């Protein structure tokens, strides 16, 4: 196991889908012991859904999304709807530090595991409840998944081209929600070091997206303006777009913020005649004529590969980056040097596959991937026998009663 920032922390993971499991997986990558609580009554949707890469059904241990989001975890199958199962969970809560759940608002309360009940068992517990709209307020009953996070936050309406519809945004919304929840939990654990008290985190996935739109929210609050889709245009910068390059479907993004960057850009291109046009002399006029400017910029970028344009402009101090498809990402030298992806071999799936590494590099508390995603119920006996101190005979009886599965 890694010697990470969350060493000696035990997490009970009741989450499912994507956002919640990602939060718990990040805690596991930071060194926490994460126990995923599962049951036959409610199998994680990512275990049983069609594989996103092949579109074909998979077994409960073979789905690539599940295996990516649940690495480093343990799996214990405990029936939460059985009274004895609930008692086992309560015993685990007493010896744990964090609870992660992303059921619809109110589900944990109906199970008898809401924060008030949990706090009676363990006053130092940090509990995170992640839902679409949060656990209070007029929209508390709203349910949803990633595209609804984006739509209700305003992100979808602001993403797309001026003459097109709002954009449906999927997995990245779960990722933002999962990472933000992780940061909130780590902050609560740091606070607990000083106070000895746990916290309850009522997390709204919609709000985790809305906070990325601060300028638009303030523009409406102060000026009454409603910002909407503008493609790649910026309010002041020009050129500011994604430009076609040599080859099939190759592109590069370029952003120029001021006159000095514009002059560096012109020199990097070899000062073609059109750069002396009076329309492009000042930033304000370049922005006014940005559509004409975009066509001229692309007449230069199309003569090079996307990597060549990036290297030429970055060397000149101009913000530019190649637009990378999945294959580009895996082979990009910088990403490889950072070890952003590692190859794992899941014994149940019988396949080697690449997964994203933890996104931060820490010298004293490094994160790591040290265990494949768990087989369904793989660690039930460990949890019962080693943590809860039950005998093999007691475990077998609980299996026969339908408490363990």
Task: Provide an overview of this structure.
This protein has 405 residues and is α/β, with parallel strands linked by helices. It contains 19 helices and eleven strands. The protein has helices at residues 19-29, 45-48, 64-69, 83-94, 107-110, 115-121, 146-153, 155-158, 171-195, 205-210, 214-223, 259-269, 283-288, 290-301, 306-315, 326-331, 333-337, 380-387, 392-400, and strands at residues 10-13, 33-38, 74-77, 98-101, 126-131, 199-204, 240-244, 251-255, 319-323, 341-346, 351-356. The strands form three sheets. It has a six-stranded parallel beta sheet with strand order 3-2-1-4-5-6, sandwiched between helices. A three-stranded antiparallel beta sheet has the order 7-8-9, with helices on one face. Strand 10 and strand 11 (351-356) form a beta hairpin. The mean pLDDT is 92.
Residue stretches low in confidence (pLDDT < 50, at least 5 long) are none
Net shape: elongated
- Major sheet description: 6 strands, parallel
Number of helices: 19
The gyration radius over C-alpha positions equals 25 Å
Number of domains: 2
CATH class of the largest domain: Alpha Beta
Question: Roughly what fraction of the amino acids lie in strands?
Answer: 5-15%
Annotated CATH architecture of the largest domain: 3-Layer(aba) Sandwich
**Helix fraction by DSSP (H/I, runs of at least 4):** 40-55%
What distance lies between the first and last C-alpha atoms, to the nearest angstrom? 27 Å
Order of helices and strands: EHEHHEHEHHEHHHEHHEEHHHHEHHEEHH
CATH topology of the largest domain: Rossmann fold
Main sheet: which strands, in order across?
3-2-1-4-5-6
CATH superfamily of the largest domain: Crotonobetainyl-coa:carnitine coa-transferase, domain 1
Quaternary assembly: single chain
Instruction: Return the structural class.
Output: alpha/beta
